[in-house]
Fold:
Amino acid sequence: MKLSVVYALVPKTKFKAAIVAPLENVLKLASEVGINGIELNIPNPFEVNVTELEKKLSDYGLELSALSTGLSYVEYGYSLTHPSEELRKKSIEFFVKYCEIAHRLSKYNRVVIGLARGRSEGRSREEVLNILRSSIEEILKRTNGYGTTLLVEPINHYETDILNKLDETIEFIKSIGSPRVKLLLDTYHSTIEEKSPYDAIARAREYIGYVHVAENNRLAPGMGMLDWERIIYRLIAVGYSDYLSIECIPYPTYEEMVRTGVETLRRVLELRY
Ligand code: LER
Ligand code: MN
Structure:
């Protein structure tokens, strides 16, 4: 398995579980601790200098593990289920562009559907899931040439009221029926929403396309209550061998968050191999 860390390409943000710091410093730290990739969370895909990003990643020998999109919701309020058709269309335009960037920068070519799903805002569950499904289908159609994988992430009920539980997210993914739509399992959200974050891995097995790691308190692995041996062995048991992306609150500092997280995960991974 490979390791990456979530980095937010913004000067500041309300989203708590990403590193906000000068990009060069973070890339340098990432390559120093020997992780393999960065997951970039980009608020506006039309305002990013892709050539410059590509060069910086390659200068530090880092991969783009995935492209994250939650900041388009947090910073601009765009979402794939927005009651305003105009803002929903903006969100779809953003996602088409995110896919183009992921396709260009990353052999993994995947884009996260996390907070940018939005909230139900008083509409029924059925209505809002139909809207989300049709937005995703439109993105799939318009990005056929890129072949990007879309990762749908169950998110805890304090942050959204759409797709909190693993089982309903799997049902939703099945209802789309495209091999390009997979599940993003985040250990923090499943600790809040599931009976057991360990059993969740077994239930999610053939749908998992990517994994976010964080403790029950959203701090770095090693700073909370989760049993990382159990998490990683379960992932291995279901055949997952891709990225573990550290998406944690940068506490006490982002440097310590990265170092502790990497050390905790490595200890388990190296015991195994
Ligand atoms: C949100 O809490 C989260 O986990 C992100 O991955 C989604 O944008
Ligand atoms: Mn996450």
Q: What stands out?
A: The chain is about 45% helix and 15% strand. The pocket of manganese (II) ion (ligand 2) is lined by residues 114, 153, 186, 212, 247 (CB under 6 Å).
